[in-house]
């Protein structure tokens, strides 16, 4: 089963509530600063990250800013990111934050949307999806928005110069309209290709190359996003700890579902800090159909 009912515990203890407030207030505070720092940092560095991807100056810089600001909070005891090899011990705080400082950073080149993903775990990293207690993403689009998932609810804010303004609760429309899947079509498996042929009869293709922006379209219009396991790379591209699980948490809190092809990503464990996983996020019916299509037992 991909969907999980009430899988986020609304009875969070008060101390943790204060700690989560600190994390998301800080994220709202730092978002305009990161956005403002992007234009001058579109150049590639000579370095590659743990996933073997060439880093942009913006990737490295945003990671440093977030490490300083989120890692500096009393509530945060560990900071990890896609852009650094190891988990950083940042003190005695009970929360561990796992960050994709810039998701879809190659979109900087083409001036398309991209953003920041933050997963908040209450266990040392790498941690299973079940250890997530909240997650959020910032989308640097025509507006800067902050979408926070906690206490079983997903809430969207517009980040303005004087702070975040709540837009409202996000809940996945019942009637889905869009889909987007990553990877080259010839690299897809036959089972997945068969599923896509069905989906495209019903939905409209929307794919922009930044997971969080593509998922935000699903949150807005209903539908499904996925980065599948590929013939030569059965784990796909996206990283469990920094991308797949935090965005799955957002979907679940918005009334949607997640899967790695067989079960909810919130029920799976990462294969190491930088481990990858196939991930599918969207309306429960579409995710259930996907699981059925990939179930070759
Ligand atoms: P990142 O910029 O953090 O490395 O993430 C890029 C990811 C993800 O955002 C997106 O869904 C995917 O890569 C796009 O990959 P393709 O270029 O293969 O479509
Ligand atoms: Mn990413
Ligand atoms: Mn990234």
From TrEMBL:
Instruction: Tell me, in one coarse class, where this protein mainly resides.
Output: cytoplasm
Where's the Fructose-1-6-bisphosphatase class I N-terminal domain? Answer: 44-159
Q: Where does Mg(2+) 1 bind?
A: 82, 100, 102
Q: Does the keyword Disulfide bond apply?
A: no
* Highest taxon of the lineage: Archaea
Binding site residues for substrate? 103-106, 207, 237
Q: Which residues bind Mg(2+) 2?
A: 100, 103, 243
Give the signal peptide range.
Answer: none
**Per the UniProt record, which EC number(s) apply here?**
3.1.3.11
HAMAP family linked to this entry: FBPase_class1 (MF_01855)
Quaternary structure, per UniProt, is: Homotetramer.
Q: What is this protein called?
A: Fructose-1,6-bisphosphatase class 1
Q: What is the lineage of its organism?
A: Archaea, Methanobacteriati, Methanobacteriota, Stenosarchaea group, Halobacteria
Gene that this sequence comes from: fbp
């Amino acid at each position: 089963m991909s969907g999980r009912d009430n899988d986020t515990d609304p009875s969070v203890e008060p101390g943790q509530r204060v700690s989560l407030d600190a994390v998301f207030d800080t994220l709202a505070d730092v978002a305009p600063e990161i956005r403002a720092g992007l234009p001058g940092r579109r150049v590639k560095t000579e370095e590659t990250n743990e996933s073997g991807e060439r880093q942009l100056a913006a990737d490295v810089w945003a990671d440093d800013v977030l490490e300083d600001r989120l890692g500096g909070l009393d509530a945060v005891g560990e900071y990890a990111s896609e852009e650094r090899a190891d988990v950083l011990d940042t003190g005695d705080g009970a929360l561990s934050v796992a960050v994709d400082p810039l998701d879809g950073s190659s979109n900087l080149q083409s001036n398309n949307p991209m953003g920041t993903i933050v997963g908040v775990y209450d266990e040392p990293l790498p941690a299973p999806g079940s250890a997530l207690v909240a997650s959020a993403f910032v989308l640097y689009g025509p507006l800067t928005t902050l979408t926070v998932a906690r206490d079983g609810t997903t809430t969207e804010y517009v980040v303005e110069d004087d702070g975040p303004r709540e837009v409202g609760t996000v809940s996945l429309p019942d009637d889905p309209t869009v889909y987007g899947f990553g990877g080259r079509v010839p690299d897809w498996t036959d089972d997945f290709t068969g599923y896509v042929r069905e989906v495209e009869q019903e939905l409209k293709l929307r794919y922009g190359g930044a997971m969080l922006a593509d998922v935000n379209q699903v949150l807005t219009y209903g539908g499904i996003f996925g980065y599948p396991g590929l013939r030569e790379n059965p784990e796909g591209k996206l990283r469990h700890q920094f991308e797949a699980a935090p965005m799955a948490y957002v979907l679940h809190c918005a009334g949607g579902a997640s899967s790695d092809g067989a079960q909810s990503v919130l029920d799976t464990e990462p294969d190491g800090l930088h481990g990858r996983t196939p991930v599918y996020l969207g309306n429960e019916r579409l995710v259930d159909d996907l699981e059925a299509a990939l179930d070759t037992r």
